Amino acid sequence: MSWTLMNRCCLKCWHKPPDNPCPNYVQCRIKGPLCHDDPECRELRARRLNELEFGRYGVKVRVAIASCTLAVGAAEVYEAIRDYVKESGLAIDISVVGCHGLDFIDPWIEVVRKGYPPAIYANVSPEEVEDIISRYLSGDVSKAFALRYRTGNAKGEFHVPTLDELVFWRKQVRLVSSNCGLINPESIEEYVVRGGYLGLARALRMRPEEVIEEIKLAKLRGRGGAGFPTWIKWKAVKDQVSDVKYVVANAEEGDPSAFSNRLLVESDPHILVEGMIIAGYAIGASKGYVFVGTEGDLAAERLKKAIEEAKKYGLLGENILGSGFAFDIEIVQDAGRYTSGEETALLEEIEGKRSTPRVRPPYPVTKGLWGKPTVINNVETLAHAAVILRDGWDRYATIGTEKSGGTKMVSVSGSIKRPGVYEVPIGTTIRTIIEDIAGGAPEGLKLKAVEVGGPAGGFLPVSEINIPLDYDTLPKLGVAMGSGVLVAVDEHKCMVDLARQFMAFFVSESCGKCVPCRVGTKTMLSILERISSGKGSEEDLELLKELGETLKDACLCALGNGAPIPVLSSIRYFKEEFSAHIREKRCPAGICPVSREVVRYEG
Amino acid sequence: MIGHTACVGGSVSADIVLNNLKNIERKPQNLVKALRVAQEVKGYLPAEVVEAAAKHVGVPYSRAFNVATFYHLFSIEPLGKYRVFVCMGTTCYLKGNKENLQYLKSLLNIKEGQHTSSDGLFTVEEMRCLGCCSHAPVIAVYMPNGARKVIGRATPEVIQKLIDELRKEARERGWVK
User: Fold this and answer.
1) What is the pLDDT of residues A242-257, one digit of tens each?
2) Minimal CA separation from B4 to chain A, in Å
């Protein structure tokens, strides 16, 4: 392979990890050379930067390859481009990128050429590839979906919006997802060019307590669900006296319909690696584990590559950037269980056991992995930590709400025009996300409810979605931010059926360790089945509420505590649907078995 | 080992599984990892294989059995060549995978309470969330070579086409007539 920015530019550079690493190594990649001045070295860097942007021949096609795009044919599109380039003999580089979250345009590609506007093409089929590229090369961008920016010299340029002109892009604040869809997830060089590892370099020049202070001032709260202030967790582990401590990144996105973590790790694995090293430095840990879900094969593969590359260039391993700090990361992949995403259950699985939750206290901050003090953070939280250390807390804290700084990546799906992952400031209203950004219901449909925060989050009626998405407001309405899931439910769906389906999920996923969850979910399911088959009574609703409250109080972990929430929130906001099943023996949406029987009798 | 299936069928012997375990460091924490590898190589986890994995990482058989029967990825019963997962996550359920599941099972003539087709080619299971919710409903096929194919925007037509393709492949490889 030819020279990259990660290498030394010439023999005058004395950087040599791990024995003699340069503390300015990261800054030097983009602003260098710093230790000496040589026009040739500067020229070498400038050439390489240009190459990264526009490819070796001045033209580059970016193909989004991530789980989402692969599910709708991105691999075939990639092959078509490769074949076309080969057969036509055109001098074009093809680069794999992750996904920027606009899933409604999958599979998508972007063509860039020096001096011309970078153009994004939506819903590309293999057959269209040739036409798209040849038209673009002839200077015509009129068929593009959007442009990154305009240059004023391409045909049709002013009929195509730039990304910033599109509401679903403009209303986002992309802090942790800024690289997603733009860089090659397998290239540490591209990550570094976009400011990657600068946060780590800055953190290593600070004292650990200063790093924690920075996180505190940024008002970062855990993005995994509970919204616990991250700095308290970090400080608790830092204050523990122990020879061994651990950082665990939770990338097991167990919640159905949550896919923002998956997208982040697949599209920008280095941001997680960087966040973990920073956390390790702050708390005094030298080992980290990333816990990846069963569905995370691609994420695990790209993370593995990221870890290898970070090691190769001395950003991971011994004596990182000459600081004397050593850190290593290992990947563990889940074998498939909803409980595995629960923080103590996940520790059990890393230890090679069943992923069942532990009794707390002791909390993981005092006795975590193998009984050692452990910080467990969601991957997005760790990515935010990297951004905060890079940009400084003051900039970060201006985004978000008074009590909670920054942004949250939300996964929007269901009956919606523009499903995808969007990064918005904390405190953005759910209505803004659902209607402005995601475009509301598809033509001909009307929304009825929005599931907020995953299965343990709950349902809100559309009339109530004018509320800010944050950790403090949502619980007052009986729902939770959870993993940032928003699922739009249209009028043709039945809330009783959905509540029953959720409970069936919890029944099959309950690990069985504690009685309230194991027996409670089963009992609630049988009541819901009774109601949906038209055999329910008014008392059943009371019983569901009573059982629900018991589960909320008595279960061992948050998954059991959260299990009744979809049911309780459905009863709270959609009582008339339950009543229709109970009193009129009728399913208004015509989904539950009760109504099918009625239809048969009428026929 | 009462109640646990002994090694039946399959072309992969316990020796080959053992061979694949060699790369895994011998320590108890690697039990899940060892079982993952064994499941992938053998296709399911018969008693001998679980025992081999247990011995390899140094835990009692009982603990390995306990873990092997807990996670969804593991099966102690033989499975079809193709493992078809139908996502029943919120979005996929809302978008029609309940109907797709019924269709798939009737297409493969798999009865209520069963999972594997009588020709031993397909096992149909429910799973929750492959993280491609934007393209719901989603189904996934774990191929015999360990590769995974995820199919978004699934409909009965898409499923029919997929099954036809897989059946053709199976015939070409001589797995069925």
Assistant:
1) 999 999 999 998 888 9
2) 18
